[in-house]
Design brief:
Layout lengths: L2 H16 L17 H4 L4 H10 L1 H4 L14 H15 L10 H16 L6 H6 L7 H11 L4
């Protein structure tokens, strides 16, 4: 067997072997009353926007795509979700202090206005998550009504 064939075989075996080491999925069975959209009584159009553009990374429920099941992409996705949830987890909203909530809402608004969220790297792959100017306006107007 030639060196090239041996190298390709070894690489193939490595790729197959790493498929058995997968991170746990970020899938909550049901939405709880602690959820941001429930606790803040968001209108349905706002719920749809947040779920489509924010919740895959910033909540306890992620809708996975087929390629999210292939390692090493699964590891990358898992790392992004863990990092995002460490900064903001919408599933735990009701457990936050009211002063923290006000700061978080302000930060959400700033990130949306400055096109920092959703991340450009996320919208490059998930183009439907990119917010139009009108959708940003809808979210911002609703955020400003939250007490």
């Amino acid at each position: 067997m030639s060196l090239l064939k041996k190298t390709l075989l070894i690489l193939l075996l490595i790729v197959v072997a790493i498929q058995f080491y997968r991170p746990n999925k970020n899938v909550q069975k049901e939405v709880t009353p602690d959820d941001f959209l429930i606790a803040q009584k968001a209108p349905s159009y706002v719920k749809d926007l947040f779920k489509n553009s924010c919740y895959n990374c910033h909540s306890d429920y992620t809708e996975y795509y087929w390629y999210d099941n292939i390692v090493p992409a699964a590891w990358i996705v898992d790392g992004h979700i863990k990092e995002a949830k460490s900064k903001l987890n919408f599933s735990e909203w009701a457990t936050k202090d009211s002063r923290d909530k006000a700061g978080i809402i302000s930060e959400i608004a700033i990130n949306i206005m400055e096109n920092k969220m959703p991340l450009p790297s996320y919208t490059m792959i998930h183009s439907n998550a990119k917010l139009s100017e009108y959708e940003k306006k809808q979210i911002l107007e609703w955020l400003y009504t939250i007490e």
